[in-house]
Amino acid sequence: xxxxxxxxxxxxxxxxxxxxxxxxxxxxxxxxxxxxxxxxxxxxxxxxxxxxxxxxxxxxxxxxxxxxxxxxxxxxxxxxxxxxxxxxxxxxxxxxxxxxxxxxxxxxxxxxxxxxxxxxxxxxxxxxxxxxxxxxxxxxxxxxxxxxxxxxxxxxxxxxxxxxxxxxxxxxxxxxxxxxxxxxxxxxxxxxxxxxxxxxxxxxxxxxxxxxxxxxxxxxxxxxxxxxxxxxxxxxxxxxxxxxxxxxxxxxxxxxxxxxxxxxxxxxxxxxxxxxxxxxxxxxxxxxxxxxxxxxxxxxxxxxxxxxxxxxxxxxxxxxxxxxxxxxxxxxxxxxxxxxxxxxxxxxx
Length: 349
Description:
By secondary structure, the chain is α/β, with parallel strands linked by helices. It has 14 helices and 16 strands.
């Protein structure tokens, strides 16, 4: 992940050093003093990068004011006081992941996360956070507020889940009982608060309709591949098979590409999680995959894209029996693409 960070004092930059040292898996970009703060923030929003301000919250609010537009796509924004005592997510806490990042920073650097979102304060079920964790598309976004309001006001909601979606883990974890969710038959006879299904015809029966993202995109690329070339290759391949990018649950690749800038930038702009797997993990996954001795000599595994797609499908769906390669290895401009379908399996978070 590419994270933008800025500070305004020497003490603040010393804290930035500690943050970067504690999160070596991410790419950090610091604001240069010759770039206006609001312009820097605007560019950060354009690439969907999380922003960490080390300083006063008021400075951060003024910096991002002109860029804030959509709670489902805005960058997550956090503020940390320069003494490193508090970490405060101020924008995109749930969908953007600011709350999760604040909690992780707090754990790694012994800071106190200050979470202010209503469902978290009241220890209530957060439907948008649930959607993110399970890679579900929020179709009728206006329903988020209505369902969240009902949860806060009454403490309970109704839900209906398509039988082709595995919800056994939720049942085993007492998810429905703990969150006071009444599980109704599918398809529901009457209007319900929340429907999870791939059948768009049921949208009118739900206050909020969540649609599973059923595909995992596997990508392999040569070092230095640009975000533009990766985007062009993916778009061309998906267009051939009439696959919508919004149905992609995650991108899988090998761990040595964890900080590959073009790949990270592409995943971030599309707001798709980037999952990385070791060569050993990729090599042990079962399946009939294309083989390349050259790729093996470089990465330690004979195929990255197909194996990574299957590994990603297993990560989000269960085991290899529940996955299938939909698009076998396709190559272009030093980039390889494959697509796997996952078994949709719901988790509590």
